[in-house]
Amino acid sequence: MKKLILVAFLAGSVGFIAGNAFWYLASPLWIDQVVDESISQSETAQILARGTFSDADAAHRGSGTATIFQGTDGQRTLRLSDFEVTNGPDLEVWLVAAADITASSDVTESEWLALGQLKGNIGDQNYDIPADADLSKYNSVVIWCEQFGVLFSPASLLR
């Protein structure tokens, strides 16, 4: 009887852990996080660079526009507009030195600057760029899964 209780407890524990792990990893596939931030820059903001998001592969898809603005106060902002990307765990927005990124290795072998956690996988959103960042070094914006080191969507910047 004790063995039966022990086996039932262990099976329940393993099932609980596996179920939670599955939920953490898989739930982003069917749960969207929608964001709708207004642009904080005035009409006099200067566009420094712009790019269009593309699919990294068949499972990691993205679309929309990445635009870097500089306001009259000197503040630089990355704006994602008409944006949509496959959801996933621990997604971040990075500026990357490499241009024409097609694989995760292009990102990991290049210099990058993390701008923060992705606010949502759908919708317009803004990210402040640090004042001391040298934008001339960065040629792409990527949506990056930090936890698994996977590229979700790149956008090559045109100046």
Description:
- This protein is an alpha+beta fold and 159 residues long.
- It has two domains: 1-31; 35-156, Immunoglobulin-like (Sandwich), CATH 2.60.40.200.
- The chain contains two helices and nine strands; from the N terminus they run H-E-E-E-E-E-H-E-E-E-E.
- The strands form two sheets. The protein has a five-stranded mixed β-sheet, with no helix packed on it. It has a four-stranded antiparallel β-sheet with strand order 6-5-8-9.
- A hairpin with a 4-residue loop joins strand 8 (140-145) and strand 9.
- The longest helix has 25 residues, at 2-26.
- It is elongated, with a radius of gyration of 20 Å.
- 30% of the residues are buried.
- The mean pLDDT is 90.
Q: Please report the distance between the alpha carbons of the first and last residues.
A: 73 Å
Strand order in space, largest sheet:
1-7-4-3-2
Count of individual helical segments: 2
Which class of secondary structure composition applies to the elements? Answer: alpha+beta
Q: Considering the protein shown, what is the CATH homologous superfamily of the largest domain?
A: Superoxide dismutase, copper/zinc binding domain
Rounded Rg? 20 Å
Helix proportion: 10-25%
Q: What's the count of strands?
A: 9
List low-pLDDT spans.
none
Q: Can you give the mean pLDDT? A: 90
Q: What is the beta-strand fraction?
A: 35-45%
Number of domains: 2
- According to CATH, what is the topology of the largest domain? Immunoglobulin-like
